[in-house]
Design a protein that fits this description.
The complex is a heterodimer. Chain A contains seven helices and no strands. Chain A is mainly alpha-helical. Chain B has two helices and no strands. The chains are: A mainly alpha, B mainly alpha.
Amino acid sequence: MRVLGAVTVVALAAGLVAGLGLAPREVTQGNVQRIMYLHVPSVWVAYVAFAVVFVASIAYLAKRADAADRLAHASAEVGVVFTGVTIATGSIWGKPTWGTWWTWDARLTSVSILFVMYLGYLLLRGMIDDRERGARYAAVLGIVAAFNIPLVHFSVIWWRTLHQPPSLMTPGPAMPRVIITALLVNFVAFSLLYVYFVAKRVHLLRREAEAAA
Amino acid sequence: MPDNWGFVLAAYGLAAVVLIGYWRMLVRQESDLEDRSRLAPSSGHLTPGSQTTSARAGERSHAAPISGHPRPKPDSRDPLQ
């Protein structure tokens, strides 16, 4: 765990240097575009976290394995943290580029619904005293809520939004290599941070369960 | 377009506060659990109740009471005590 923590810190430092130093100033937006190196990896981690909740919830309902339930719980919590970071950094980026902190367009609204659904997931877990019943209800919600992820991702394609369409993996003029590299370094750093947080949270949940038994 | 470095710093600063805050919460929870597990098997610790019981049985303990002062053995006491 300590090795993973150290590697994550190094990767985050590299991501910071890449995003704030090595990546060039963007022509149209200026330096404020550097928020992208934080905002896009955050939402990537949130998607991964909620996809893990989806898979672990199915595994829990199929096998009633406590390990799957703990993984779903930990991943949902970390996903909520990263979705919060995504919304906050997006709002800060929106003010100088769109002229507003917030607008109810399809992407922002769908990601807010995603955030509230997983907050509800965590509240549901905390509200039910019977641990097994709480885990079962949370697993159902974890599966249902995951259907919102494609809605969030494709909302910028399916509806006319203020939010820009996805820049990566779409045909069009290629991004400069240095920008893609800086983005990839941050993707790796944030993914490592996700793994570290989830591993730590799963470990804590297991110890809490052992202490309660 | 102006550079808006203030917005960049605000975004990175806010993200750092949230992520470090979450990490600290996990570390605090871990140390709380460690404290609890360290205290759990300490039934051998002296409590006011256990001292009373041993005193009632005529086996006065010489271990430090809760106040922390060790009790002297009777033959080592000064007559004035």
